[in-house]
From TrEMBL:
Keywords: Oxidoreductase. This is tRNA-(Ms[2]io[6]A)-hydroxylase. It is an enzyme of class 1 (oxidoreductase). One of its GO terms (molecular function) is tRNA 2-(methylsulfanyl)-N(6)-isopentenyladenosine(37) hydroxylase activity. GO terms for biological process: tRNA modification. Its EC number is 1.-.-.-. InterPro entries: Ferritin-like, Ferritin-like_SF, tRNA-Hydrxlase_MiaE. Pfam families: MiaE.
Length: 212
């Protein structure tokens, strides 16, 4: 990734104060350096993350057919995530990067292992986790933008807006369900998410921790 965007605004200026407060920590600089050392893996795993995000939305559509607001939001989200997947694959093709399967990071599973059984607690936790995944994605896009070439920086800037909206939708849906309030669960997952982001990982992924 050459020709970085030197006049890009600082990451915090691209993100809402609410989103920054939602996350318990910022992405460590060591991860940013790791990402810039692995531009192909960054895009390959980014494409994989978009595909998984669409799959998650579709699974919620199938499981929770009695939730009209969730059905509407997840339908919109699935379409948007698939569009992002197509855009990333097209960008990779233009750069001579072959899309291939790579193993998932421990990030999402590290959060989902704490999901409570039984409804509506299970759905509340899944939605909170969705909000954290989208918020962290948004924060990492914003952190990367100043270091990227103009084409990729422009694309990631559009994703900051959409992923920020997805974070808001997931959180709104979680707050819409009983039992309320959900602040204690948000705080619990904020701590778990920060642990995953700041702890060592052997392999670079879009949601990995720092290099081991």
């Amino acid at each position: 990734m050459s020709d970085p965007v030197t006049d890009a605004p600082p990451a915090d200026e691209l993100l809402s104060p609410e989103l920054l407060d939602f996350l318990a920590c910022r992405t460590p600089d060591a991860w940013i350096d790791w990402a810039l050392e692995n531009p192909e893996l960054l895009l390959i795993d980014h494409a994989q993350c978009e595909k998984k995000a669409a799959s998650t939305a579709m699974s919620l559509l199938y499981r929770y057919v009695d939730q009209p607001l969730l059905l509407t939001k997840m339908s919109q989200l699935a379409r948007e995530e698939l569009l992002h997947f197509e855009q990333v694959v097209k960008l990779m093709e233009a750069r001579g990067i072959a899309y291939r399967h790579i193993s998932a990071s421990r990030y999402a599973e590290g959060l989902r292992r704490h999901v409570r059984p039984g409804e509506p607690a299970r759905l509340v936790d899944i939605l909170i986790i969705g909000a954290f995944i989208e918020a962290r994605s948004c924060e990492r896009f914003a952190r990367l933008i100043p270091h990227l070439d103009p084409e990729l920086a422009k694309f990631y800037r559009t994703l900051v807006k959409s992923e920020g909206r997805h974070y808001e939708d997931y959180l709104m849906l979680a707050r819409h369900l009983p039992p309320a309030p959900i602040e204690s669960r948000i705080a619990f997952f904020a701590d778990r998410e920060a642990e995953l982001v700041q702890s060592p990982d052997q392999a670079f992924r879009f949601h990995s921790g720092v290099p081991a």
